[in-house]
Amino acid sequence: MMSSYIPLGIRTSYSLLQSTIRMSELNQQTQFESIGIVDDHNLFGAMDYNETLINGEIKPITGCELNLEEKYKILVYCKNENGYRNLCKIISKSYGEKVTSVFWSDFKDAKDIMAIAIPGYTCETGQEKQCADNMDKYFANNWAVGIRNRNTEEQEACYMSSIHSTPIVAIPEIRCITKEQNQAYQALNCIKHGQYFDEDTSYEFQLPTSDEMTEMYKNWKAPLENTFEFAKKCSFLLKKRKPELPHFATENMTEKELLNKKAYDGLKEKVKSDNMGKYEQRLEFELEVINKMGFDGYFLIVADFINWSKQNDIPVGPGRGSGAGSLTAYCVGITEIDPMQFGLVFERFLNPGRISMPDFDVDFCPKGRGKVVDYIISKYGIDKVAHIITFGSLQSKGVLRDVGRILQVPYGLVDRYSKSIPVIQGANLSLEKYMEKNDDLTKEMEEDEKVKKMFELSLQIEGLPRHASIHAAGIVIGKEALYDILPLYRENNLTVTQFSLNHIEDAGLVKFDLLGLTALTIINDAANLAKKANPNFDINAIPLNDQKTLDIFRDGHTVGIFQFESKGMTETVVGLGPETFEDLIAVISLYRPGPMENIPTFIKRKHGLLPIQYLFPEMERILKPTYGILVYQEQVLEIARSLAGYSMQEADLLRRAIGKKKPEEMKKLKIDFTKRICEKMNSEEDKAIELFEQIESFAKYAFVKAHATPYALIGYQAGYLKAHYAIELLVSSMILEQNNTDKLAEFIYEGRRLKINILSPDINKSSESFSIENGNIRFGLNAIKNVGIHCINDIISKKPFATIEDFFNRANVNKKTLENLIKSGAFDSLEKNRALVWSKKDKNNSIPTLFTEQIEITDWNNDTKLSNEHEALGIYLTEHPLDKFAINKFHMKWISIRPSAEESISGVGKLEKIISKKSPRGDTYSICIVSDPFGIWRFISREKPDVLSKFVGSKIHINGEDKAKFIIANNVVHLDDFINSDGQIVFKIQDQEEIKNLHQILEPHMDKNGKMQIMLNFENENPIIVGKINLSENLLKKLDKFNWKI
User: Fold this and answer.
1) How many helices (H) does the chain have, and how many strands (E)?
2) DSSP code string of 593-639
3) If exposure means fewest CB atoms within 10 Å of the residue's CB, which of 50, 71, 327, 431 is most exposed?
4) CB neighbour class for 805 (10 Å; exposed up to 12, middle 13-18, buried from 19)
5) What fold, for 880-972?
6) Do residues 701 and 747 touch, judged by C-beta distance below 8 A?
7) How far apart are CA 556 and CA 447, in angstroms?
8) What CA–CA distance (Å, rounded) separates 610 from 478?
9) Does domain 737-873 have CATH number 1.10.150?
10) Distance between CA 741 and CA 746 in Å, rounded?
11) 596 CA to centre of own chain
């Protein structure tokens, strides 16, 4: 049964925090032949709800509610395509720097836009005539008077209608579907406006039923009937458009001719091969496909802004994703990877049998990315380039906090629930699943009405969009002014599309991804420093078989190396012992969830510990580089081509189809594949089926070699710099991470390992940031806390300073800055006694006697110096409080190269901070942040923070278990207590020489009454007790070279 009216005033969830209505609810309203959407001064959801409603056989009426004259509202709708274009233009221009509003004069271009004016909403009460005159002036016969509530607005509506004989339409304000959802809308409204939830406030914004509207207008049918007439006038449907590229300007050449010329010129310049014929054949094939698919311009556009970036010293990545499989891209400068050298496949990127837009993801140095966007804008026009919008949503953890706040649920309770929601694979567990798994919560909801309401409301609004922001990488370039294609928005003074990434292509635009990659900044900065030592150095011309570089990976010295510096990756690459660049590509592809299970087999096969077997001998050529294991998608394509006779286009479609795992389609694929294998290879059916099943199981974790290869190259470049220009790489890394004290501590230790001294900041020698000084690295002034850029510029412009007094007299610094400069040691070159300098700092507070009287002041002791240094720098620089203990190999065991999972271990550190956390079951536990000479690390303790708080700032010893991803401490004690406690110290012994050396150290300390029992553990034998000792700091230092644990 059809409804008695058309709802013309629906706000969807795209009216951010102003509606509960989701797209999935809209297409269920089949009682209506049409639905009018008027989101709050935006068309964010237009493409989404048009597609949703059309699929549900409901006609969408595209519109929005515009802010008018900064304080009123007017409802506008697209009558036809021209009306849509005009509305896009009007709304796009309405986002000002200070206000978001349209004005009456903006409607001079309102042709083919329908509108509704509501008395008291579109104008003040008493100004109905002026409003009606404006409506008639700008919208002629394309407007109506709206009435939301007959009981309160009928008189004013009738008067406004009479002025120009304008029809009246019933237009209830709809922000939720059912009456029960009004409280969820109220919660959203409170979150938006920072208000508390009021149980006594009631809303009536639900979608009225046909009977309810009939009853309200039982003696006055016209406002309902007029909704149908109004809807009939709005014939516009926002349908998908074929994406169109801007024309790439050329002189006397077509885009095809220009791309061909650039590609062949690049081939001659870049490729020096005996197989030039094969390269030319491949390039000819690619260019033909690119031209047939109409993508010549796309390649030219991407190549243009990449080559501009290179010419303007903005670092660009060597490639990313399947685009690195294109020889054309390599020849025109889009990528720096020769796809034929590494067996990369073009059809994985572009396939005539799979019609989709090409998609080059391009990495840039983050510092230069903005300049690239500015160049694109200058080339194509400010009206043709925009960033892409994205929406942040109300996720489980955050929505609980939001709703808990408006309901005034005690913060501690809300915090406990929010923190107990687990994060799985980077995403918060949904509230529905969380509640299903939490039996205790059901009981708590029964006992506490506020808790029950908090979860009920949170469930209703979870997942709704909360705010709009800018996509990190995507931009669009239009063939025409973008506001003629889609509506635009303003965010942070940037032009942004109102349609999100999922709908950009449907709107007829092509997305270009410009990503920021900090590794490029580090490598570029380090390479520029290297050129000072070697003017001929070129990071893009380094050999890929440099053994010194591969030694860096084999030895696990991967700190600061892109893609390889995580603990697990370091473990893997050390176990593998890479001998070629291809091995590094494989590691990047394997070290991911899924394929990780093949790492042990891969390593054993590489080292000859397991045999390599091939189902068909012909597979050896394809799988030999990966020791018989399917690692890359490209290998699947080649197997299908070589063994089953597929074309590469067919093979790519096979790969995609297998990945989708549709049962009926899989059945057909299996039959076809096995048949073709049997025919081409003269194989038995069982063997062919086995191969299909191998490929099928691989599809769940297949990786694109074309993506792994460029990223392996970036890592290799960093490795090369570390092998040959270590100080240049280290200082560049420190500059980038200057605000990350965890990373700085790691780099400082790495510098020590490399025998590179990290020098304290110095008011006369330091630059703004870290710098190289006579083979050492000098700390930068900007790494000192509370030292701002204006202060730094002042110091640098006025240095050198002859004395402390000279600095105080000339430098313009505040008290806090001065204190941190002293604590950091920045005045040590002028006066080593930091306590004396500290006493003189008060000269700025009118105490001149400190400069005229000789007062003997004792310098700070070492512990105070280190504590102050840590306070000013966030790290220990000159030394660490635990340096004298020299038992820090445990940090290496735990944090850098872990020997095996779930091993019982022990170690020492200085407890810096405790963070309280809640488990999914609501139990409190502690994350403890610890420093040692090797950097910052963390362990988990089941003890509550108040129990562990006595250890903060102290040296501690931890016994615990290594769980691969984290360390769980079973026991935490003060280091002094550990040294003097009863226990066992077990030495792992390799040979007789080691026993002899150990005996020489231990013999003077042997004591039958000692508290520590000595045990020797020979390989494959039970430990032997050899005596007792009492530990001391000095003895611990001597034992550092042995492999032992408590």
Assistant:
1) 43, 26
2) TTGGGGHHHHHHHHTTSS----SSGGGHHHHGGGTT---BHHHHHHH
3) 71
4) middle
5) OB fold (Dihydrolipoamide Acetyltransferase, E2P) (2.40.50)
6) no
7) 55
8) 56
9) yes
10) 9
11) 22
Q: Which two tokens stand for residue 533?
A: 């030592």
The pLDDT mean for the chain works out to: 90
- Hunting for tokens 């039970």 — which residue is that? 1022
- What is the C-alpha to C-alpha distance for residues 185 and 959, in angstroms, rounded to an integer? 52
| DSSP three-state, residue 992 | helix
What integer pLDDT is reported at residue 651 of this predicted model? 86
Dist CA 294 CA 341 (whole Å): 27
Is the bond leading into 881 cis (omega within 30 degrees of zero)?
no
Residue ranges covered by each domain of the chain: 23-172+207-233, 255-390+470-516, 394-465, 532-715, 737-873, 880-972, 980-1046
Residue recorded with tokens 């408590």: 1046
Asked if residue 172 lies in contact with residue 5, where contact means CB atoms within 8 angstroms, the answer is no
Confidence of residue 163 (pLDDT cuts 50, 70, 90): very high
Rg (CA), the chain: 35
What pLDDT is stored for residue 188 in this prediction? 98
Q: What letters, b where the CB count within 10 A reaches 16 and e where it falls short, cover 744-779?
A: bbbbbbbbeeeebebbbbbbebbbbbbbbbeeebbb
Is residue 33 within 8 A of residue 1, CB to CB? The reply is no
Pick the CATH number of 394-465 from 3.60.21.10, 1.10.10.1600, 2.60.40.10, 1.10.260.40: 1.10.10.1600
Per-residue model confidence (pLDDT) at position 925: 84
At 724, the pLDDT band (50, 70, 90 cuts) reads very high
Supply the DSSP string of 314-375, one letter for each residue. Answer: --B-S--GGGGG-HHHHHTTS----TTTTT--GGGT-BTTB------EEEE-HHHHHHHHHH
Q: Of 275-284, 296-305, 587-596, 760-769, give the lowest mean pLDDT range.
A: 587-596
- The values of phi and psi at residue 800, to 5°, are -85, 160
- Taking CA 896 as the corner, what is the angle to CA 891 and CA 899, rounded to the nearest 5 degrees? 90
Q: How far is CA 359 from CA 31, 298, 654, in A?
A: 42, 9, 20
Q: How far apart are alpha carbons 251 and 269 in whole angstroms?
A: 23
How far apart are alpha carbons 409 and 918 in whole angstroms? 18
pLDDT on residue 563: 94
Q: How far is CA 340 from the centre of its chain?
A: 32
* Rounded Cα distance, 1038 and 250, in Å: 74
Higher pLDDT, 988 or 837: 837
What are the C-alpha distances in Å from 264 to residues 253, 285, 308, 333? 15, 13, 20, 12
User: Do 357 and 297 contact (CB within 8 A), yes or no?
Assistant: no
- Cβ neighbors of 305 (< 8 A, separation 6 or more) are 372, 375, 376, 379
